[in-house]
Specification:
alpha+beta, D-amino Acid Aminotransferase, Chain A, domain 1, 4 domains, 5-stranded antiparallel sheet, 18 helices, 36% helix, globular
Length: 518
């Protein structure tokens, strides 16, 4: 078995995960990315290969609370739009095989390229593993799959990895593939935690809610929650956040009691915190939340109140040449009892403040650039209307792709348009402005059992599709989650915010009518 011996020998020569040797190897690989970016990225006819690893390498216990979490890997199918470049190749790796009907749906959207031509340049690989482990971890457990990825990159093609977020697992995979990642070095992960975000906001001189960071123990939370109430007696609620929570599911709320005097408040908090806080993730117990806080650490912040309050975000990118781009602004759609859970977004953010938050985001991005951050990230705000205007509080940096990444990429790739940072609007090449409403949570129990084929048939019959000539319409994503969970995502592009939202409501109406029991 000489081939097997050679394989094992090569595998044993690899640096150990997390070792100094691996970190040095990763650094050297990343250093070569700038020249690849400068020479090949601007050339739409260059021979290049993008290895897409859509792993949500996040806390798996919190992620398990998200229905259909495995199918969130499908959100990066938007990167199949890169196949519009006639010499580009895409290798897409997923936990489970993706239905060819879904792949055909995306390839059909490609402007100027036939589906056949694009499919010839697309390689789909799967772990055949539906467990809750992050995709990247599954890949690392399969050395032969890693070899298949390597062998799928044609000779003469430059290549890099595109992923959802970058952790130690992605670093190990990059070293084993000898490919750079268009993403942040995992050694900088602290900057994207809740505590790290607050430190960056301080350096950038950007307002944030009153609070405290780098908290470790139960007593730290008690002291911080009590101190907030002492400093701001009118405060009604405090938010306790895990450093690595996401989509609001790593947060918990504490309501201050009205009947307790200031002198008694500390004792009340000390004895009642572990009974009175409410984790935002409904099926996450207080005990589990507090144990996760002990392991992850976190922050306490004032819950910002206001008659008019919104939750905008700004999507940014720092490229390998160190250039900062403001990519887009959004108003997030949040649900839940306390408005903490992300379910969708309007693009762009409200005209009243989208330029203001873009300026603040650039200040924050410049600080991140000094730290060596690379790739896409977003910055979340809470904005409160005051008599003199809107006041913006930065609350979080997400050093990864997120819920606003794939909708904007779809808009950009489908229309070949441009976002103007100064005006905050997106224009097609024909100077037409476009808006969208996007959600990952188009969900009804009645939709369960609908296959991808069923959805496409319904969409085609009712003309729920993107019209390339009009450059507006509806695109679906996370289609694989539909049959089991009655859930999928949608991006609705229109000539106005009202038209975009009308596409969204019509999609619900059509699906409701098609799934009613007759």
């Amino acid at each position: 078995m000489p081939g097997r011996i050679l394989f094992d020998h090569c595998h044993s020569c690899l640096p150990a995960p997390g070792s100094a040797e691996e970190m040095l190897a990763f650094k050297k690989i990343q250093e070569g990315f700038a020249s690849q970016f400068e020479l090949f990225f601007p050339d739409n006819h260059a021979n290049k290969c993008i290895v897409v690893i859509p792993s949500l390498t996040l806390d798996q216990e919190v992620l398990a609370k998200v229905q259909g979490a495995l199918h969130y890997e499908e959100r990066l199918l938007c990167l199949l739009m890169l196949l519009r470049m006639p010499r580009a190749r895409v290798i897409y790796v997923s936990s489970m095989p993706i239905d060819e009907v879904i792949i055909d749906y995306y390839l059909h959207l490609l402007p100027g390229i036939t589906g056949y031509h694009a499919r010839e340049r697309l390689t789909l690989l799967s772990c055949y593993d539906s467990s809750q482990l992050p995709l990247t971890q599954k890949i690392l457990q399969r050395p032969r799959l890693i070899e298949r990825i390597k062998n799928s990159i044609p000779a003469g093609h430059v290549a890099h990895i595109a992923c959802f977020n970058t952790t130690a697992y992605e670093r190990t995979l990059a070293v084993r593939l000898s490919l750079p990642i268009y993403g942040c070095d995992p050694s900088l992960v602290y900057l994207g935690t809740k505590s790290g975000s607050r430190r960056v906001f301080m350096k950038a001189g950007v307002h944030m809610p009153p609070g405290a960071e780098n908290l470790q123990h139960y007593d730290d939370i008690v002291h911080a929650v009590a101190a907030l109430k002492d400093m701001y007696p009118e405060l009604k609620k405090a938010v306790i956040k895990l450093n690595d929570g996401f989509s609001g599911d790593g947060n918990a709320i504490l309501e201050y009691p009205d009947h307790i005097s200031a002198k008694e408040m500390y004792n009340w908090i000390h004895h009642n915190l572990d009974k009175k806080i409410r984790p935002v993730a409904g099926d996450l117990s207080i005990e589990t939340f507090l144990e996760k806080f002990r392991l992850m650490e976190g922050i306490v912040e004032a819950f910002m109140e206001g008659k008019e309050k919104t939750s905008p975000s700004v999507q940014c990118r720092i490229n390998p040449l160190g250039e900062v781009d403001i990519i887009s602004t959004h108003d997030q759609v949040l649900t839940g009892d306390t408005g903490q859970v992300f379910v969708g977004a309007h693009f762009p953010a409200d005209e009243a403040y989208r330029s203001e938050i873009a300026v603040l985001a650039r200040r924050i991005a410049e600080e991140l650039k000094k730290e060596g951050v690379l790739g896409r990230f977003s910055i979340d705000f809470v904005s409160v209307k005051e008599p003199e205007g809107w006041k913006h509080y930065a609350i979080e940096i997400n050093l990864r792709k997120g819920g606003t990444t794939h909708p904007f990429l779809m808009l950009q790739f489908l229309t070949d348009g441009h976002y103007d940072e100064t005006t905050g609007v997106f224009e097609t090449p024909g100077k037409q402005v476009r808006y969208y409403y996007a959600s990952d949570n188009l969900q009804r129990d009645s939709y369960k059992g609908l296959s991808p084929q069923d959805l496409i048939d319904i969409a085609m019959f009712h003309e729920l599709h993107f019209d390339g000539a009009a450059q507006k319409g509806v695109m679906f994503h996370m289609i694989g989650a539909l049959s089991q969970y009655g859930k999928m995502g949608v991006v609705c592009i229109g000539e106005s915010p009202e038209e975009a939202y009308s596409f969204y409501t019509r999609t619900f109406e059509v699906l409701d009518a098609e799934t009613v029991i007759k």
